[in-house]
Amino acid sequence: MKEELEVIVEPLLEWYQENRRILPWRENKNPYCIWVSEIMLQQTRIEAVKRYYARFMKELPTIQDLANVPEEKLLKLWEGLGYYNRARNLQKAAKTIEEKYNGKIPNTYAELITLSGIGEYTAGAIASIAYNERIPAVDGNVLRVISRVTASDKDVLLAETKNEVTEQLKVLMAKQKGNFQAGDFNEALMELGELICLPNGEPNCQECPLQKNCIAYKEGLTQELPKREKKLKRKEEDKTVFLFISKDNKIAVKKRDEKGVLNGMYELPNKNGEIEDLGDIEQILKQWNLKSIETERLGEYQHIFTHITWKIIAYKIKVKRENTEFVWVSKKQIEKDYALPTAFKKIIK
């Protein structure tokens, strides 16, 4: 273990007790609340998660509710958070907990990590915060803090770097005496990375409780660390999306295939590629047994996923009749009952 880590525990925990944010999932040590919040917080910032968390917990306050909710309602509750397989894995894990653990979330890291959608970080967070198991929860914030404190030049995007930091923290936590709160320690590291040891721009070193122990600060390396290799450029896909509206103002939606991006969700009808020619559009309508009354080009925009960018051309087309290939619903029904990805909701708005 790096010697400089030995001295961070006490000042870090003192800082956390005085500066920790009041968050709904921190109000108690309920493992269900912690689990749901940690899954939501993957790929999403805390301020954005709060309202989704409140809505979700109001509708599904227990493991049993989550295990038994219809998938379409689950995805509707998750709407806006993206990465919808997170919600599906939550439910899959909830069913396992119901069947294998009598509806009680397991209390060890070793058992938690066997559940669907729970990786090393999430298992560490639940085990330490809810059950005080001395196990690290290493995310990007923690890697950044430790990289700067120790002035490590290892690439934080590599699994071996994360594994090394995890082992260092595991040894550090095991050495603590007395009433050491493992969950508070993990949350303090994450909170410091979120609020003080910032990823972009200048970190707030003057407010950092670890300033005098931080080698990166002493050596003027805070802008250079942590080391990160350049990310690969996102793949781009062209899409033509159609907002079909019937005479009684119903909108056409259809369910996506059970594979690929946004699998199993509803979407607006679309085709791969850029389609600009009105004749080509009429041929596509004919394939779907539709005939246009009025066609309006809504414009172009991009929607960015983690690994792919959709370049979208959108059309609003009023049609003579509804077909049977699509589900025709009102805008109000879409808002209430149908989980539509943000990429398509933009067009309706």
Please write the string of helix (H) and strand (E) elements.
HHHHHHHHHHHHEEEEHEEEHH
- Overall pLDDT, averaged? 91
The protein's oligomeric status is single chain
- What's the number of helices? 15
- Main pleated sheet: 4 strands, mixed
Please sum up the structure shown.
With 349 residues, the protein is α+β, with helices and mostly antiparallel strands. It has helices at 9-19, 31-41, 46-59, 63-68, 71-78, 85-100, 109-112, 120-131, 140-150, 159-174, 182-195, 215-218, 278-287, 331-337, 342-348; strands at residues 235-245, 251-255, 266-267, 270-272, 292-304, 308-319, 327-329.
How does this model look, in words?
The chain is an alpha+beta fold. A hairpin with a 3-residue loop joins strand 5 and strand 6. The model has no long low-confidence stretch (mean pLDDT 91).
Name its key features.
4-stranded mixed beta sheet; 7 strands; 349 residues; alpha+beta; 3-stranded antiparallel beta sheet; single chain; 15 helices
Set down the secondary structure blueprint.
Layout: H1 9-19, H2 31-41, H3 46-59, H4 63-68, H5 71-78, H6 85-100, H7 109-112, H8 120-131, H9 140-150, H10 159-174, H11 182-195, H12 215-218, E1 235-245, E2 251-255, E3 266-267, E4 270-272, H13 278-287, E5 292-304, E6 308-319, E7 327-329, H14 331-337, H15 342-348
Parallel strand pairs: 1-6
Antiparallel strand pairs: 1-4, 2-3, 2-7, 5-6
